[in-house]
Amino acid sequence: MTVNRIKLSLVVAPLCLVLVIVVYVYSLWSADRKKTAELPVEAASQMMRDLLKFHAKKGGFPEDMAKLEGIIWERKKRPFSANNRALNFRNYYYFYTQISPHQFTLWAIPTGGSREESPTWFLVASPESCRRWKGAALPLEQSERIEPNPSLKDLGILGLIEQPAVDLKTAQKAVDSFMKK
């Protein structure tokens, strides 16, 4: 009888050990997936690219982001807010404002549980150039009071630092010459 218990223990103990290891690995994987899902993924440059494509097709920037539906973006239900000028996408809050038919501003503010790990961006763009400012994640209560077109002083108060400007005309010429080759 004792021999059978020992044989049974030699079978059950390794199975329990394997089960503990599998549960531990799964918990690590699950925690990593949760952290990855909370991490903001910034797409301001893609948003700017889509707005520039709209400008090239229609001759001006849209009044709101919903106008991109069906022209640049696939038509589907998106959770726009602020009169279709704001969109929450992959833990970033994008706030778009048309300044003129040929100029816009775009805020990209991180949201979610891991928002402190990602930067806030502010862009002023036209078909010719893009000026960019970057800073730490804005506090959530402050992001509700952002100005669509703030002054340089306001951007400095928010802790945003201007990045090198991007000359979009030169960049487009380089792409066009590369595509001809």
Radius of gyration: 25 Å
SS field, number of helical segments:
5
Mean pLDDT: 86
Q: How many strands, what sense, and barrel or not for the largest sheet? A: 7 strands, antiparallel
The coarse silhouette is elongated
> Spans of 5+ residues with little confidence (pLDDT < 50)?
none
What structural class is derived from the secondary structure elements?
Answer: alpha+beta
Q: Give helix and strand order, one letter per element, not per position.
A: HHEEEEEEHHEH
Distance between the first and last residues' Cα:
83 Å
What can you tell me about this protein's structure?
- This protein has 181 residues and is of the alpha+beta class.
- It folds into two domains: 1-38; 44-180, no CATH class.
- Helix content is 41%, strand content 24%.
- A seven-stranded antiparallel beta sheet has the order 1-2-3-4-5-6-7.
- A hairpin with a 3-residue loop joins strand 5 and strand 6 (129-135).
- The longest helix is centred in the first third of the chain and has 37 residues, at 2-38.
- The model has no long low-confidence stretch (mean pLDDT 86).
